[in-house]
Amino acid sequence: MGGTGRRQAMQENAASPSPTTLTPAERVATTEFVSPPSHDEERLDAVHSDTPVRYRTVNNLIGEDALGPGLAQRELEEASLLPAGPGEPCSFAEAERDEAWRAAMQEEMDTACVTCQQYKADHLRPAGLLQPLPVPSAVWADIGIDFIEALPKVQGKTVILSVVDRFSKYCHFIPLAHPYTAESVAHAFFADIVRLHGVPQSIVSDRDPVFTSAFWQELMRLTGTKLYMSWFI
Questions:
Q1: Which residue ranges does the record annotate as region Disordered (predicted)?
Q2: pTM of the full predicted structure?
Q3: d(Cα 70, Cα 153) in Å, to the nearest integer?
Q4: Is 201 exposed, middle or buried (0-12, 13-18, 19+ CB in 10 A)?
Q5: Residues 119-140: what's their mean pLDDT?
Q6: Do 117 and 127 form a contact (C-beta atoms < 8 A)?
Q7: How far apart are CA 124 and CA 94, in angstroms?
Q8: Taking a C-beta distance cutoff of 8 angstroms, is the pair 163, 145 a contact?
Q9: Are 229 and 205 in contact (CB under 8 A)?
Q10: CATH 3.30.1360.70 given to domain 142-229
């Protein structure tokens, strides 16, 4: 098919709302009309040559009508090799929000991705609905707590326990030795925070094993402190 014929065929497809199924040869021939060159061409090349893929042409441009089966599997495999973000059980946290990816992940990732089965299983309970934090009304009544790690060793301490008052933004930085435990963190917390400011009404933290441990949970329950934890670790 000559250049004029291909261009005319694409214009006819653009006027028609129905999807068009392209053969591998036509798929290669029509990529030269995608303007400007972008990631779309890479996605076209990533599809297995023997897998028909449905496309829809709009304004003489080619767009995927749906994820091809070969493309879904390949991109899942490539994404599984990426390091997970902080606290994310796998690298699909963003993809899960896309409606087209949910079906592909449900079908492909659960059984086909060996990497995810071995190393990226989700061990967290399903996250609840996001809720706004209560507005603090007094100093040191509502605090945030977190760890700063991998610091140069100073007097045997390589970790800082950061405690921030959500009302005044005043901070305490408590040095800790690594490894630390729920018991050692609780001892430092009561010695440096509760001793000076009293027992807080609420604590905002991530899901570090210290804060999810039975010891820490029971200790805060006995003191009447409410725990607010983020979704990620």
A1: 1-44
A2: 0.51
A3: 50
A4: middle
A5: 78
A6: no
A7: 17
A8: yes
A9: yes
A10: no
